[in-house]
Design goal:
alpha/beta; Aspartate Aminotransferase, domain 1; seven-stranded mixed β-sheet; three-stranded antiparallel β-sheet; binds pyridoxal-5'-phosphate
Length: 421
């Protein structure tokens, strides 16, 4: 049997976002394999504590993906049929799919120049059915959380809120559930993501800044009267079949009896994943983020001088990205031109990507009645966007090659189209 060799098949290609797998990661995984405990256990619990200390939130539960983390929180909050959840039109499908899974309606709003949901549009979308707002920190750049948190605590907005679950009654307002899939380590007004909204959910998928192969974390930061530790304990049960003891607890001498207190879900993180996460987190600020920042700033330095380029916002007086994506835009270019540019970049053995195909352009959401013409900024940003490779092992030579390949491709396509015009 021929085993597909990724490196062999892509030997000349600059990849888009391979994970950083070095000896430290391999040793941590092997040590966990040899420890005799590979599913949720001491490593996962330690990873949760370290994440809480890192983000400065109140308690953290690790899960098997951001998608399951987002859905678990919608269900915990009692979101269901007849409810509305406000999300950006410009996001990955996971943000919207989880709302659909719960039987609720995703309400899409347009974005601003930073690719994030526009606060004014959020306010206009609020109705008596709104239960949750899910801001997405696109590419790792945090949303304006003071503005968003401010909206849901306004008296007129609180008056619209109609609670229909115990947790909704306790909160007494719309929940801010941040889709922070891209933004671990990003800062806003001196605080880290995870501590900026009521609840934030991180992704540790293989392409993310901080990976556990697959995985995610629910960062709890609920206001009083919630007891975040009690919510954490409840979610441990809810994400493990509704079983009142986890596998490790059941293994203890004579502790085999268990009960199922409700029909829960199954989306716990394994200790194998947490072992990777612990290594990644320990060197995240001092190494990974710095390297990503260097790559993104180098791209900006180069592309700022190109008249056709719009460089992404990575840092302002109040916020700094986690440098997850480098979302370059090509000024005034059409979707067709952008696609042609991408093809010419690939032809030069450089991998690029587009984040994202907006929800209203996807078959399922089109069939739900969403129309891209209602989201003009989303469409404009999408049609001009090309995400460039950002990963730890990207060399200076590769970085220069990416800049050269993009420039050549843009100049070829734009001059071709000028002639055609
Ligand atoms: C904005 C956004 N939200 C949610 C997710 C889902 O993350 P996961 O793959 O960990 O479920 C992704 C994945 O890329 C994403 O980009």
């Amino acid at each position: 049997m021929k085993i597909l060799n990724f490196e062999e098949n892509n030997c000349f290609m600059i990849p888009f976002a391979p994970p950083r797998i070095d000896q430290e990661i391999i040793d941590a995984v092997v040590a966990t394999l040899k420890s005799g405990w590979i599913t949720t256990g001491p490593k996962t619990k330690l990873f949760e504590q370290k994440l809480t200390a890192y983000c400065g939130n109140k308690a953290t539960l690790c899960v098997n993906s951001a998608t399951s983390g987002l859905e678990i929180i919608l269900r915990w909050f009692g979101v269901g049929e007849g409810d509305e959840v406000i999300i950006p039109a410009y996001t990955y499908s996971a943000t919207a799919n989880v709302v659909v899974h719960c039987g609720a309606k995703p309400v899409l709003v347009d974005i601003g120049d930073d690719f994030n949901m526009n606060a004014l549009n959020i306010k206009k979308a609020i109705t008596t059915k709104t239960k949750v707002i899910m801001p997405v920190d696109f590419g790792g750049f945090p949303c304006d959380y003071d503005l968003i948190n401010g909206i849901v605590t306004e008296t007129s907005v609180k008056k619209l809120f109609q609670p229909n679950s115990t947790n909704q009654q306790l909160l007494g307002r719309i929940l801010i559930l941040s889709d922070a899939a891209h933004s671990i380590g990003a800062t806003y007004k001196g605080r880290k993501t995870g501590a900026l909204a009521d609840i934030s959910v991180f992704s540790f998928h293989a392409v993310k800044n901080l990976t556990t192969a697959e995985g995610g974390a629910i960062a709890l930061n609920l206001p009083e009267p919630f007891d975040n530790i009690e919510v954490y304990k409840y979610l441990c049960i809810y994400t493990l079949h509704g079983q009142n003891k986890d596998a490790l607890a059941k293994m203890q001498k004579g502790n085999w009896k268990y009960d199922i207190i409700e029909a829960g879900y199954k989306c716990n993180m394994t200790d194998l994943s947490a072992a990777i996460g612990l290594v990644e987190l320990a060197r995240y600020d001092s190494d990974m983020i710095l390297k990503r920042k260097y790559i993104c700033e180098s791209y900006s330095e180069f592309f700022s001088s190109q008249k056709w380029a719009i460089v992404p916002q990575l840092k302002t007086d109040t916020a700094e990205s986690s440098y997850h994506l480098y979302a370059l835009r090509i000024k005034n270019c059409t979707e067709t031109q952008r696609d042609a540019i991408i093809q010419k970049i690939f032809d030069q053995n450089v991998s690029v990507n587009v984040h994202f195909i907006p929800l209203p352009l996807l078959t399922f959401y089109k069939n739900c009645g969403f129309n891209i013409s209602d989201y003009p900024k989303t469409y404009e940003m999408f049609s001009q966007e090309i995400s460039l490779p950002v990963f730890y092992d990207l060399t200076n030579e590769q970085l220069a090659k990416v800049c050269e390949a993009v420039t050549l491709a843009v100049e070829e396509v734009l001059s071709i189209s000028e002639k055609e015009i």
